[in-house]
Amino acid sequence: MGKTKNTSLDTVVRDFILLGLSHPPNLTSLLFLVFFIIYILTQLGNLLILLTVWADPKLRARPMYILLGVLSFLDMWLSSVIVPRLILDFTPSIKAIPFGGCVAQLYFFHFLGSTQCFLYTLMAYDRYLAICQPLRYPVLMNGRLCTVLVAGAWVAGSMHGSIQATLTFRLPYCGPNQVDYFICDIRAVLRLACADTTVNELVTFVDIGVVAAGCFMLILLSYANIVHAILKIRTADGRRRAFSTCGSHLIVVTVYYVPCIFIYLRAGSKGPLDGAAAVFYTVVTPLLNPLIYTLRNQEVKSALKRITAGRGTE
């Protein structure tokens, strides 16, 4: 299925079949409902954050919340690239995805995922400037610079996604077309290639390692300076307020990077836990982000109250 003969008598893959997540057959309906609810809540939660930042003048004038709005937009799209396809795995429908659809899914997955990495780094840099350089912050991080940095993150993410998609699908696929995964991702697709994938695997490891590890190290460096600056604050209330502005971002970074590093940068064989880790950072994390920022961020909660009370434009 999904293959056609060419003149060299080899078979050419026309589509792929995603085998999805392993699960007991009696849980199919429950898992369909769970992932469907997660998807709807993810879209609504991130849309709420996006509209709140846009509608409240106090928030949309600050780079921190501009970045938060961009993060919500990314989460909505990342969820839309992954979850609807995943939901189909729990239905009787055909599990095949066209070759071009697989290329597009892999590209957008790595494009949006790497853009998030860059955005988390920008958010850490913004907090570093706000806490460690408070007097110069309005000059060092203004709206124009924030826009340029965000645009740079999008361009870099697009380049990363293009590199991964081009390297993966430049190889011939002429044999089995069953992808033992719930999405078209690099390692799962490369197992089906009819050519040596050593170079691809090395480039993938280095490329993703540079992006993920590089961004992670910059975030750690930013927060090392932030902690050092906070410890110099004399009052306990001042330290508490400074830490509260960074707590949400640290939680989000942790729940994103730990599964990502587990999947792409660890050595050794890959096991069933890879699927669970991938589901966590591709499906669960976009759901958690708006919850973390609304429950832990007093300014977002205050803005929501103002908008609800009809005072969002004051």
From TrEMBL:
Q: Which SUPFAM superfamilies match?
A: Family A G protein-coupled receptor-like (SSF81321)
Record keywords, A-Z: Cell membrane, G-protein coupled receptor, Membrane, Olfaction, Receptor, Sensory transduction, Transducer, Transmembrane, Transmembrane helix
**Which regions span the lipid bilayer?**
30-53, 65-87, 107-125, 145-163, 208-231, 243-265, 277-295
Q: Which InterPro entries match?
A: GPCR_Rhodpsn (IPR000276), GPCR_Rhodpsn_7TM (IPR017452), Olfact_rcpt (IPR000725)
- Gene3D superfamilies per the UniProt record, alphabetical: Rhodopsin 7-helix transmembrane proteins (1.20.1070.10)
User: Where, per UniProt, does this protein localize?
Assistant: Cell membrane
Gene Ontology biological-process annotations = detection of chemical stimulus involved in sensory perception of smell
Residue ranges occupied by any G-protein coupled receptors family 1 profile domain in the UniProt entry: 45-293
A single GO CC term, please? Answer: plasma membrane
One GO MF term, please? olfactory receptor activity
Q: Does the keyword Transmembrane apply?
A: yes
The entry sums up its family as follows: Belongs to the G-protein coupled receptor 1 family.
Q: State its role.
A: Odorant receptor.
Q: What is this protein called?
A: G-protein coupled receptors family 1 profile domain-containing protein
Q: What is the lineage of its organism?
A: Eukaryota, Metazoa, Chordata, Craniata, Vertebrata
